[in-house]
What does this fold into?
Amino acid sequence: MGVLNVTPDSFSDGGRFTTRDAALRRAARMIREGAEMLDIGGESTRPGAAPVSVEAELARVIPVIEALAGCGVPLSIDTMKAAVAEAALAAGASVVNDISALDDPLMAKVVAEAGAGLVLMHMRGRPADMQRGDLSSPDIVEEVRQHLAQRLARAVEAGVDVEAVVLDPGIGFGKTVAQNMALIARLDALAALGRPVLLGASRKSFLGALTGQPVEARAFATAAACACGVMRGAQILRVHDIAELRDVARISQAIAEAMRGDRD
It folds into this structure.
């Protein structure tokens, strides 16, 4: 899953693809490099980010989605707002990536009626405040597992096809560095819920905390996190650097399959 932020303030590439033409050029490059899905977002979810209005978010994402409809790969809309999701699905998106996991009471209905895919993510608080306050947890993996199981049940009850749901532990969303590492190490606990697991670790701050590298120099750290994630059950990688991470995913998956074959 290639990240396409059409925002002025995202932590990694904010401001680079805010125009329609720049976004389309970036999308075309990611597809050439092997992206199998594009995740388009019009509201930054970096720590401390302020929310934007429905109107502002729509103005950013809809022209890009309309232009990319039929580009050959599925389009995902990265939003917490049902109104934005509904418009994006009508414009050509087929997946809703909801980092709030259905906090908007209308979101599940919108997804169900469209027959769309749905990514449910765990997050504490909201981007504006998610890294503040007490982040302690007796067992972060069990906390995330229970939360996602509950939201999965809510989605299915609302009519979303269970086969269309993907689960995301929310790396970096209201977690400490140690908690992020624990979640990657134990992704198999989330995979046990029976749905594919998405890992979004690309260029994130916990990698910088461990390596001392700035955002633009975290490609190797991202590759390591993604390789470990695939070995522990991740089936979708949400990343910025497509060509590099495509090869990481292929090799990691091949080794993981060989390990399972050895045990069999």
About this structure: Residues 115 and 160 are 7 Å apart (CA to CA). The longest strand covers residues 117-121.
